[in-house]
Fold these 2 entries.
Entry 1:
Amino acid sequence: MKSGCRDLEKALRGDAPELRTAFEEHAASCPACARELAEWAQISAAGPALKKRWASPELWPAIRQQLAEQSQRPRVSRAGFFSRALPGFAIASLFVLASAGLWVFRNSRGREPLTSSWQTTKDPLLTERAVDEVEAAEKQYLDSIDKLSKLAEPRLASATSPVMLNYREKLALLDSAIADLKSGIEENRFNTHLRRELLAMYREKQQTLQNLMKEVPS
Amino acid sequence: MIRSRVSIARAVLAALLLAAPPARAERDPRSDFDRDFSRTLPVKAGERLDIEHSQGAIRITTHKLPEIQVKAHISVSSSDTEGAQKFGEGIAVSVEDTGGAIVVRTRYPEKKWHFTGSGHVSYAVDFDIVAPETMPVTARNRFGDVTIDGVKADTTVSNANGKVAVHDGKGMSRIDTSFGAIELLRHAGPADVTGANGSILLTDVGGPATIRNRFGSIVAKNIQGATQISGGNGSVEARDVTGNLNVTNSFGTVEATGVTGDVSINNNNGAVTVENVSGSAELEGSFGKIRASKVKKGLRVRSQNGEVSAVDVGGSANLRTSFGQAEADRIQGDLTAENANGGVRASAIQGAANIRTSFSQVLVNGVGGRVDVDNSNGSIEVQVTPGKAGACAPVSLKTSFGPIRVFLPDGGGYAVDARTSFGKIRSELPLTTSGTFTTEALQGKIGDGKCPLTLSNSNGNIDIQKAK
């Protein structure tokens, strides 16, 4: 099978392994495609680290322990009412949890996974708990920005095309806003407006870097 | 089996309960200090409001009374009770009548103490001001939103790191902000708006509007005056503009609909779509598609590497591009299309058609006036329509390395001069030859031979056929 520069997207989709192989063969003799393929490989490698997880490390050990305890207990001939009703309770509990999850996510529109009080409060100053939440969110953005910045750095350093120069200008503008807000926050840590604005700038910087990485190098 | 399922369900339920995070109590080891400031001053005719502020919102509404009510809510939070109170009391809000203006200022005390560990002081001052509705307003803010409702006089707002919303106003509105959205709604007067990184929305503006933005989107709807838009990296949408519209942009799409005057758009790397223009339109771009429809007067399109199309143009249309298809349909005036490495398709052209391209196909169907096509390395196919009241519409088609096919209407009279090399000349219509007659060169008449039909080719056939 022959492959060309236009087949990159199909090859990356992974539907047809032979297309991927053919594209890799093509990339061996095409420096532009080889660079593109290498960058996608870097993004794929960085992807799992960017993925957000809600870790419940206690969950599986607790299930395992409960099962072990169950198996150790002497068997009783007749299950009580609670035991008989337990599957129903478990299903109902899972349903309630799922509904709560749907309710929480109902208006996120892909911006923020959770609607926290600090996002909607009209109070000019945040509580400590809210600031903890904001700082946790900031840290996630910063981790993501850090990884994306490393990937974007070579492209930005050698930027000559108008679109790349434009990205560089926008990132510089965002960095100046971030620096401005951070200096404000140093003096005024619980100010709701400052914290929201800083988070919005981080979000925009992350989005800008993601868009930059989607640009096909000219 | 059932026992096993019960065990698993019990284990899952218990584990879920165990894994659920405990409800976290609010833990705010800090002291809050709140203070309200309120002052009312009479306002003399012609006085303006001048407010300079930071670290908080400014909200201005209006009333009919000749007085201004300034209220400020001061919020301070600190890990140090005494410090919170000291800092809060040190925040000074001043309201002064200088004769020409009511001047409102906020001054924050210098933080002269240092905390160790998690010690802190944070603060904000939010203003709620009610001013006479005819009082002009100048507001400068940092790190806070500005909202102005119902001011029927000039407003000037300069903000940094905050949104600006001006609603139901009148008079000249000047707004600039960095890193915040701008919203100007239902404004009876001209507007001059500058943003940097936020979106800009203007609707129902009763005067000319000048809008600048660098990285945010721009939407301007129902603008009753000439509109000048300088965008950058965001999309631009202009609808229902009474007057001329001028747009420059770089990387976003530009859409303009319903303009009563002339339209001029220059967009470097994004698509341009223009519809319902009562005047003429001049559209320029580099890499994006350019589409124009329902332009009542003339249309001029310049693109470097994009597709261009013109539909329902009241005057003449002039299209130029390269590496993209050029299309023109229902043009009431003349059509001039220049392309390179891209095809040209033209139909229902009431005036003359003058078409140049290379390395692609030219298709022409229905031209009221003269047809002049010059192609290199591409085919030409032309459906000739009868001239109005027997008027002569000369046809001249020239190409190389591609066939020429021309369809002539019944009853038309043409003086045919056809030449090719390495090709054949064929005619479906009866032709009276005169002069040269070989398979590669032909001169003769169709009908009365009134109208020149010049067909020139190199390395391709020439077919003269009856109109379909």
Entry 2:
Amino acid sequence: MIRVKNHKIIATLSQRSLKANRARNVIAVFAITLTTLLFTALFTITQTMIYTTQQQTFRQVGGSFHGSFKDLTLEEKEALETDPLIKETGSRLFLGMACGEPFRKVHAELSYMDDICRKSSFCSPEYGKPPKEGTKEIACDTRILQTLGITPEIGKPLTLSYEIGGIEKETITDTFLLCGWWDYDAANMASMAILPKSYVDTIITENPADDPYAGNYIGIGINWGYAAAQMSANHDLGTIAGAAALAVLIIFTGYLIINNIFLISVSGDIRFYGLLKTIGTTKKQIRRMVRRQSLLLSTIGIPMGLLLGYVSGTILAPIMISSMNDSIGKTYHIFNPWIFLGSAIFSLATVLLSCAKPGRIAAKTSPIEAVRYTDAPAAKRQRRRIHKKTNACWMAVANLGRNKKKTLLVVTSLTLAVVLLQATYTFTSGFDMEKYLKQLVVSDFILGDAAYFQSNYRTAKQALPEQDILAVSAGGKITEEGRIYGSYSGNLQYVTEDLYRNYFAGMDSEMLEEMLANEERDEDGKVTVNTHLYGMEDFALSQLEVFDGDLEDLYNPEKNVIAAVYLDDDYGHPMADSQWAKLGDKVKLRHVYEWEYSDAKTGEIIPEERVESYTGEINVKEKDSQDISYEVVACVLVKNAMSYRYWGTHQFVLNADVYQKNSRNSDVMAYLFNTAETDNEAMQGYLENYTANVNSALDFESKQTYENSFAKYRYMFLIVGGSLSFIIALIGILNFFNAILTSIYSRRKEFAMLQSIGMTGRQLKQMLIYEGLIYGMLTIITSAVLSFLTMPILANAVSSMFWFFTYRFTLLPLLFVIPIFAVLGILLPLVSYRNVARQTIVERLRMGE
Amino acid sequence: MPILETKNLKKVYGSGETAVHALCGVSLSVLQGEFVAVVGTSGSGKSTLLHMLGGLDRPTAGEVIVDGKPIFTLKDEELTVFRRRKIGFVFQNYNLVPVLNVYENIVLPIQLDGNVPDKDYIAQIVGTLGLDSKLTTLPNQLSGGQQQRVAIARALAAKPAIILADEPTGNLDSRTSQDVMGLLKITSQRFGQTMVIITHNEEIAQLAGRIIRIEDGSIVGGGQS
């Protein structure tokens, strides 16, 4: 093959023909921009979501280290640091915990951290500097400052009491100078304060620790943040599949439009390519010309799309993240060059894919045929019967049939938008609030300790004080009310050995068998495990869902009867294996009135109030207890809102009086109540104020809370689905416009001829409007058919994912788009024709001669 | 009385120094049933003249009178309607509507006017032009000569006052050209149809009853009958 230096002339030709096609260029650049925008936004959102979830988990864990060692000696630490398997280490010297009045509720740790440790533990001062060696400087998070009531200011003195030591605590109070601080993240469980190493060393040498394990015990931790992030990534295979499907959809729509634009512009320029062929341009060169044009357009479109996509991605990501996962408060904005590279590659691929075929068509042009080329690709049908009357409408139909592929492309892309809109609407309007609330809400209001709502009801301190119940009752007219009593530990159930093994399933089997062998047994050979027992007053009992037996006896405080709690799946069906007790069974419970705690090593008795903060291993023994048998009269489901809100063991329900009498416990876990409809709002406000200002340890949930979270959920789908269908609709309309404009443009000469033989401008416009309306009609019809066919399938899939979804068939969105299509179908042809009509008939007739 | 008349027709494209005088005061007249050829070299202004005669373009000065009507007093829409009733066009590149078959193409001007085609008359035209077997064929299945015959039939269909043909044989080989010219002449005689043909081909022009010569936008011979 002869190699000639013809690149330059090809480049010149491409550029010149690019300049000649201004209208096409604008549409093409717009399409490329849009495609890139969609890719960038998609990638930004998914990346942000993954990163945010991971960061959030790290913060909950307290650091981004892969693993940690605790209680090391200096030598051990140095040995580890030089280990070749360890890439980076950071160390922290723990001094003690802040104590004194303001720190009752705030867990705050004082320590020295080196640079790496600070970074990985998210303890680098955002304002100011880390403490300097040899000084008494301190840096801490804003929660500590807030707790102390200090406004953040560099150099401000800060007095802090802290406890050091092992078993024998010693309290030290000292004054430091504030040298830096960072924002406290609610995800973090502990607040941190960092001090210089010199200070920590001095304190430790002055107060030698009496740690009984010193030297022979190293704590090991593996950061579960990574595993959790990985697991949720695996778990979210659906999300990834969804993102992939979306990417394919974007490629498809991008292809549809860019391909269409180039296809049309190539057929418009076909004589030009024919001419080039006649004077000896090769197929390859023509293909290169077309490709070059598309690449030139991409150099404008892609950067624009990257920018706009990144912006819209960063705006949309927080909305989506916060509605998907309530526990994530802060979204991390990431700037990852891979997002841009990836989006650019994807949209470039779409562009190249889209103009491959037009390029081939241009290359295949035979020079002779090109001269005769009309938009009708060598009709297969050679004859057509004669129609009685040739009118504008009929000609419009024939014109659309001229290039069926193009018509199909336009109708497909428009249909896609309409069906998507239809799906979004069906989807979001199917979110059934009644269904949602019915499943979740038990009463207008639920009052309890904040810990209860955090699924953290553990100790007697978290019980709801009676005086608060009384105070709240004064806030509005209460129509129904009931307490639920409960206790985390204190009640045991007798179960078979098999159930015992199930209960401790996570344990090492050898240890489990050893434990089981040591357990006390009753006359039936049963052993005890913990149970979560409810004592419910009448109103609470009435909120239980009974699916077997009868609850009536439970209202009677004289009877020794019990209800067995089953778990349900999302659709409210009880799961048979979630409870061992069946209707009529006897359930033997052991109510424990007093426990005895002792150190596992020394046997020393530990007073109950010190148990929580005790660091050594503890043995627990029952000191005083009573066994009572109950008959199961009902099998029930407890809605999450009024349950313990965690599931560790089998649960049972007793009458409130029976519960208090037999377990000798009156801890109120939650207080349910309804108010009169008219008082709901006032009560909401009253409770908001009460839990914020009067007793901030309390919290509440109301129907309103659930309605809000439901609205938020629906809003997310509306935003996501809405913006998706908006974008696709935009693409569809663009395609529509493009198809009409180019079809009119390429028929300029034909129209001039029609006018020369006597078609008036009015008749011509009429014909074009018919063309536009037929496009719209075809779209509506195919969308309606497709909706009829696909919506029930979609609804099925959706209702299996969301239990609160109720399918209602609707064609409302379709009705909504009909006028839009009508207006577009009339307006677009008129606008396009106006452009064409600027040229006189003679000018148009002379074209191409 | 002439069926077609122009009085001092002028057309100037552009203005100032770049002004091009395509027609500089053309006056001519054509009688009912005449078969006239306008001959001139490329750029002589003959196509511009034809466009003026057909009411496709408006002159800078002067007037065109068709069937006693000064056509440029009409508005655009009226002019279009006048055109489809009074003037038939035959173009060099046939200009048939690709989505309509032969018959539909022929009757298109009549139907655009909202009228029912005169079947006998159409059959006569079709017979004369030898298109009987092609009525349901689509244009892209026809040869150049056949397409031009369809175009002639279309021009005749509305019984216009005049038929204007712009290089009707320009895309045809010499044999087909002779055929087409022969057909034009025959139809002109048989239907008493006035025809004005524009050509640069002297040989073709010789078939006409009268030859009007045009050079640099002015008539140099044969302007009045």
